Amino acid sequence: MLLDSGLFSQHHREEEVVTFLQSFSRPVRALVRGNPGAAARTALLGAPGITVKGLPGGGKILHDRVWIVGETAVLVGASPGDFLADPAGKPRRATTATDLPFADATIWRELFDQWWSQGGPAYG
């Protein structure tokens, strides 16, 4: 489960982001700012197991990026489009990923479930 309002806001990297998410070889549900744009929706059409919804309120309720796997969660400093290697070799932004305590992971999971049920249409 990904809480990442900027997941598809890295200008023309939608296909790269979807390919990166597919590399996990596991189902992915993501909540993003608003509904994903046309390029993201097109990339998601060929990505079984990846489902994306817009956050309620267009994403204004979320600032941090939290990735939840099982009972653990990681606070991620940047969206994949910012930290994935650039095909032209240009340096990417530095970022960090920090394990969150179990109690925080539990709260974020509950928020994810709540926001998922309130979110917009599902894509993917």
Short description:
The chain is of the alpha/beta class and 124 residues long. It has helices at 14-22, 38-45, 80-83, 102-118; strands spanning 2-3, 28-32, 50-54, 65-69, 72-76, 97-99.
Give an overview of the whole structure:
By secondary structure, the chain is of the alpha/beta class. It has one domain (2-118). It contains 4 helices and 6 strands, in the order E-H-E-H-E-E-E-H-E-H. It has a 6-stranded mixed β-sheet with strand order 3-2-1-4-5-6, sandwiched between helices. The two termini are 14 Å apart.
Number of strands: 6
Task: Give the class from helix and strand content and strand pairing.
Answer: alpha/beta
Instruction: Please state how the strands of the largest beta sheet are arranged side by side.
Output: 3-2-1-4-5-6
Largest sheet: 6 strands, mixed
Helix content: 25-40%
Distance between the termini: 14 Å
Shape: globular
List low-confidence stretches. Answer: none
